Amino acid sequence: MARLERYLAVAQDAGAFPVVVISKADTVDSVDEYVARASRLSPGLLVEALDARKHEDVERLRPWCGPGQTVALLGSSGVGKSTLINTLTGAVQDTREIREDDQRGRHTTTGRSMHRLPQGGWLIDTPGMRELQLVDVGDALDDVFSDIVEFAEQCRFSDCSHEAEPGCAVQAAIDDGELDAERLTRCRKLQSEDRRNTETIAERRARDRVLGQMYKSIQSGQRQLKGGKK
């Protein structure tokens, strides 16, 4: 779920319309729980579960493949992007299975490429991503975690940290089962990463100076305490 939320934030920031594709639905007895969990990540999010090898399944993606439309496939290595491209375009690209020892994908696509779709659109393929860092996507994160934002607006204090403050609507929602505590944790982590990566060099240096002065002050106080004990 955390990785999907990253991709959703990037898509929202780019102004793209996100569609989550569960491309290996044939590998499990039921995909209902996977679809339900993905659907809860963002209001109105479209989730399609299919077998990427079957043309009749992939037909569900055709509405986004027509003239004037561009589709970009993003995902980790081994999730079935190349298989999906083969079915959508009729091309023949190499595909690889996920490694058995660590269940991680192996790179099939090593560079970006564009493919003309039979319906008139274009498809962009990208290499499997090992890591996706967020930079300057604060507004997009608010969209992805709009449920948390809405609860936060009901908190008694505008600067509520959603920890133990009285009148915290976010914690109340967690207690009532309306909000998953892990989702709040993931939201905080992504917001922190975004702030850190968005900092300018000047801001980062200023923050480091303040921290350096604080550490020196603490060390000086510790030395004085030790000297007093003697």
Q: What are the salient characteristics of this protein?
A:
mainly alpha; two-stranded parallel ribbon; elongated
Report on the architecture of this protein.
The protein has a domain at 2-125: Rossmann fold, CATH 3.40.50. The radius of gyration is 23 Å and the shape is elongated. It is mainly alpha-helical and 230 residues long. Strand 1, helix 2 (32-39) and strand 2 form a beta-alpha-beta unit. It has helices at residues 2-14, 32-39, 55-58, 81-89, 138-144, 146-152, 169-175, 181-198, 201-229; strands at 19-22, 46-49, 70-73, 113-116, 122-125. The relative contact order is 0.11.
What's this model, at a glance?
Helix content is 44%, strand content 9%. With 230 residues, it is mainly alpha-helical.
Structural class: mainly alpha
> How confident is the prediction overall: mean pLDDT?
85
What kind of sheet is the major sheet? Answer: 3 strands, mixed
Query: Radius of gyration in whole Å, from Cα?
Result: 23 Å
Q: Residue ranges: pLDDT <50 for 5 or more in a row? A: 98-107
The helix content is 40-55%
State the end-to-end distance: 56 Å
The H-and-E topology, N to C, reads as HEHEHEHEEHHHHH
The best one-word shape is: elongated
Q: Which percent range describes the beta-strand content? A: 5-15%
Q: What is the topology, as strand order, of the major beta sheet?
A: 3-5-4
Question: What CATH architecture of the domain at 2-125 would you give?
Answer: 3-Layer(aba) Sandwich
CATH class of the domain at 2-125: Alpha Beta
What is the CATH T-level topology of the domain at 2-125?
Rossmann fold
Count the beta strands: 5
Helix count equals: 9
